[in-house]
Amino acid sequence: MVAFGKKLKENQIQEWQGYYINYKLLKKKVNRYTQEIQVGAETQLYVLRDFARILDAQIEKIVLFLLEQQGVLATRLINIGKQQDYVLQNLDSFKVSELRESYRAVGQELLRLLFFVEMNAIGLRKILKKFDKRFGYRFTDYYVKTRSNHPYSQLQQVFKHVGFGAVVGAISRNLADLQDHEGNYISIYDQPAKSHPDPVIDSIKAAVNRLSNSTNFLEFLGSRAFIIQDESPTPSEDQFVEQSYHFMSLLLNLVNTFLYMVNTYIIVPTADKYSLSLGAEATVCGIIIGSMAVAQLFSSVYFSAWSNRSYLRPLVFSSVFLLLGNMLYALAYDLRSVPALLIGRLFCGLGSARAVNRRYISDCVPLKLRMQASAGFVTASALGMACGPALACLFQTKLKIYNLTFNEETLPGWIMALAWAFYLLWLWISFREPLQQTKAIVTQETSAASSSRLNSSDERLFINVSLEHRFVQPLLLKSEAENNDEDADQELDDCDHDSEESHKPVTSIVSAYRLLTPSVKVQLLVYFMLKYAMEILLAESSVITGYYFIWSTNSVAIFLACLGLTVLPVNVVVGSYVTNIFEERQLLLASQLILCLGILLSFHIVRTYSVPQYVGSALITFVSAEVLEGVNLSLLSRVMSSRLSRGTFNGGLLSTEAGTLARVIADGTITICGYLGENKLLNVTLIPSLFICISSIIATFFTYNSLY
């Protein structure tokens, strides 16, 4: 992976070269500050003030140039507008076509300006993160707090692209007006749905959305998959991925995700009754549900490592274990064995291949389709979560065949075993292993070819030098100067964490932990909290509703299915509208506060605990947790190091482990608290949820400005 400093230098617009952020200078300053503090030459206060002063100057340079270029574009639009008035009066179709091209040319210039702003914004974020990491300060928090909220803020210009909207609006409106130059114009303000956007407008909108972190439903849904992307995959890498892309293999990964989520939640409505039928307490359902999560803590690691070499084999292994686990879960009823029941669920957890599913999307789906695939991953999970409890409603039968019992407790196991058997057959027939080894061979051949061309080039250079010695000296001087400059750059890169070495995937959990900044740790805490709260709500629902409201299995299943069905509508509203109005960090804090309110409303305080109170508080808790999960994972993918985008110990694995650990602890809490009695179960299990939620809110306040 190319270091950002080199990428910035390569992608600069040459005529604007002097107005970019001086990333090289800032890196030198950071390195010099490090040396000065180590020898005691400067104080921390001086370093903070000096670096802030340099950053202010850099941002001012960028913003003033940005305003100048916006003025140039505005002047061009005014001049084109004057021509437009004359042309439309005379209805000259040739001139109308020229006007359109003029507006498109301004649009192309605006795209260049947006790219200029984006590169500078990335550079600013990187240097702030680098400074904090190098010195252990909370400089980003201080800098953003003092600059972004100031009435004369220049930081807003860089991160919020103030002023671009007017230019985009002018280009969009006039291009729409010119679509029909006979007088029947469609205004983008009066009838936006009927206007036909120009391709350049689509490109501008995409660039603005990317710059402002605006999102739509698909992007918001995809962000919940938490598939961290490399900052800038090379064209050759993406071309290789596109050539080896296989839709059926992707579909099989999504089906695996769906079936696993069904497998997880299909037993929730009947787990307490299954425990009672085997002579155990109803609250043992916490262990039954949680044993799958316990095994998943370990399976996620070895599946993530296994996917470095293959995708088919871990998926086959997963399917076999899930097939055996579900059969053992169903047979436990006739064996009258709680251990067999738990071992069956452990086997199911050992077959959790979600790490493989995520990894396949990240590595084997082309960049242009990756967001859709990520959204498909989340949709499959949501549908599985809803279908699991819903299927439990259908198993209201009881019969025996060859001494095997088929009833509402065992049918979830038998049905899922059958589903995994069919899936295993489909997987074996249709899955195509990505060409990972071929990629390595191609890379080696390319390197060899490059080396060969370099050698032949050196030979020709030697011949030319021998023949025309008198022209060599100036070239050598120039080359030497360039080499010295490159050596200086290389020396700077070697002592910096943005070098190619620092972008390699981490190889141990310790290395991964060292890359976790305070912002990342807080976001992982938030993820842990929301998963804990959701697991408490879902896993104890059958016990709570049975104790307070005497609900049947069907009622519990319908209740859980309805909760699961809220996932997609909520994501539509949040992804399409809410995230375009508020910042993600604002939504993060607001959804945590609402989640805290839902937990508080769930407590049994008054004498009568009613169905509306339970259902209403559960709905608030679940929906706010769903919103929080999307925003949290979106922010987490932004603040987490790009080194965690690939390899065994990737960001997806860390978030999965955090969420799975939360589920394990929540399920264990239910079982332990169950010994206090079912009448105390609700309040006692909600206390840890409330404590963790308040802790995460406080932690979010402390890192709020670092999420700018």
What are the salient characteristics of this protein?
two-stranded antiparallel sheet; single chain; 2 strands; 708 residues; mainly alpha
Unreliable residue stretches: 182-186, 188-194, 437-499
Note the beta-strand portion.
under 5%
The tally of strands reads 2
Radius of gyration: 30 Å
Distance between the termini: 26 Å
Q: Helical amount among residues, as a percent range?
A: over 70%
Number of helices: 29
**Major sheet attributes:** 2 strands, antiparallel
Average the pLDDT over all residues and give the rounded result.
Answer: 79
Global structural class: mainly alpha
Principal-axis shape equals: globular
In order across it, which strands form the biggest sheet? 1-2
How would you portray this structure in words?
The protein is mainly α and 708 residues long. The chain is 75% helix and 1% strand. The protein is built from 29 helices and 2 strands. The protein has helices spanning 4-11, 23-39, 44-90, 93-135, 139-148, 155-160, 164-177, 199-212, 217-223, 235-244, 247-265, 271-277, 285-306, 312-335, 338-350, 354-364, 367-392, 411-430, 436-467, 472-494, 509-514, 518-539, 541-548, 553-565, 567-576, 584-602, 611-639, 651-674, 678-702, and strands spanning 399-401, 404-406. A two-stranded antiparallel sheet has the order 1-2. β1 and β2 form a beta hairpin. The longest helix is centred in the N-terminal third of the chain and has 47 residues, at 44-90. Residues 182-186, 188-194 and 437-499 have low confidence and may be disordered. Its main location: membrane. Keywords: Membrane, Transmembrane, Transmembrane helix. It comes from Erythroxylum novogranatense. Residues 2-145 form the SPX domain.
